[in-house]
What does this fold into?
Amino acid sequence: MKGKKMLKTLLIFLAFMLACTVLSRASRSLTVAVVKTASPGKMTLEHKVTATGKVEQNQELAVSTQAGQKISQILVREGDSVNPGDVLAQLDLTVLQEQISDCKRELEKTELERSALESAKELQAQKRERAIQRAQEDLDWAIANGDQAVFQKAEEWNRAVAELNAYYQSAEIEEAQESAYKEKIDAAQKACEEAKKAREEAIREADRALEDARVQEPPDHAAEIKKAEAGGIRKQMKKLQKLQKTGGTVKAPCKGTVTKIQACAGETTAEAPLLFLADLSAGCKFTAQAEKEQEERLGKNTPVTLINEQKKKTVRDLKIDSVKINAADAALLDVSVRLPAGALEIGDSAKMIVEQKSAVYNVCVPIQALHQANGNYFVYVIQEEETILGKQLTARRVSVTVQEQNETYAALDDGCLSSDQKVIQDASKTIDEGSPVRLEEP
It folds into this structure.
């Protein structure tokens, strides 16, 4: 009886221990992190840069016509393709004819005004020459007339002196008669001096008149200005007449695509271009913007693939032509790719893909397995340890050196890990050095 009681007690104890073990394992399974592992492997890392952009022209031409023309029709729309000689716009021929008639009338008026100014200028020149000639004649006459008057007065003075000398030699000197002779001499001398003064005054006045006649008047360029105006009118009229010969049409100078229209029917043309054409003969280019951090992977001549989803078209074997910092945002790069003829059309959108492969690395792990603290990289690997509850899997921290990485994998220095180690790439909860873990069930 006693033995049965002891056996029963033992069985109850064993059942209790079993229950405790089950509860302990169940509790442990709820608190231990469940992890997913991967083995380090050999591989190459792929780097991919993508950006969306648009096809643009390499060269754009401005199409203009004579200013002041009334537009009857614009015959193209933005995005239209045109060939050389295609009519882009039609001008109002009635307005054009009126402008040509106005030019003719204005030219005739200007030519008449120029002719009148030239005649007046020629007449003025003739008058000036005649005034100079007459002033010279007056000067010559003043000199000759003054010389004659002085000569006559000098002769009278000499005769008076001679008469006095003869009187002294021929008769008895009477004071009254002598005084009369001397007065005559004084009068003759005074008349001679006055004749000299009169000569000098007449010559001075005639010389000044000659100088005044020779003075050049300010140059008059009115006729030359009118001539230039006539030339401008004639040139404008020729342009209008040339436009009239084409039927008042504006034609495409080359094969291209209409990129921008700056006028509409009913408006009057200005100095600004009527519209712009992308010159297809100069080719086109694809442009996109990428992050500045991708600069090292977007160098000149880097291979590029373009994909146009709308047209289901892929263009391969292209190369980057240029990479520049965006003018508006220094954090972006402007990437340009020259396109061969027929690759894509101006205005098409496309996705740019740049793919590069690294060298082969011996130790590569998923990027999720890589951790960083204080600027140093590390991973967690699984190791097995003996505990009071038996063998237990724990996490062990291993420092590593990263050679290269992309969005999915990191390449580590050789020797950091062995191929048979299991690297933890995912855990159901936060783990640390020595944290117990268990493997995720398949």
